[in-house]
Amino acid sequence: MLRLPRSRRVSVGALGERRFAGGCYVYAGSAFGPGGLRARVRRHWSGGRARWHVDYLREPSRLLEVWWTADGRRRERDWSVALARWLGDQGVPGFGASDSPLPSHLFYAVTRPCFAQFRARVLSTLDGHAPLHCTVLTTSTRGGQPR
User: Fold this and answer.
1) Is residue 147 part of a domain?
2) pLDDT tens for residues 18-27?
């Protein structure tokens, strides 16, 4: 989850320039690559060359929380559907969804969404889903690696 302090236009690679309202953004992605979840979070936390759509939004934003699961199934599509229904937002068209039939994997909320509410919705609607967790990132975490 990212917090954008104020509205602004952001160039998002091949998607072009987009306007983002100030508020919170929840991105649904996977971390099945080398190093798994820890490597993906570390990469988003520490910056680096923009590679994915979310990297372009990371620069002007603050990373607040990581909602995660150790589920063996790729759940970003399930989470994207759940987020769209829960937040009443269809997301930023094409954002993070170039390999997905869904319109977006990035969802907006004016105020910080509650992880406990999201977890309850997911676990009550998706049979066999592994437990969900939330890691809150603080300023003290930013000095080193995320815990």
Assistant:
1) no
2) 999 999 999 9
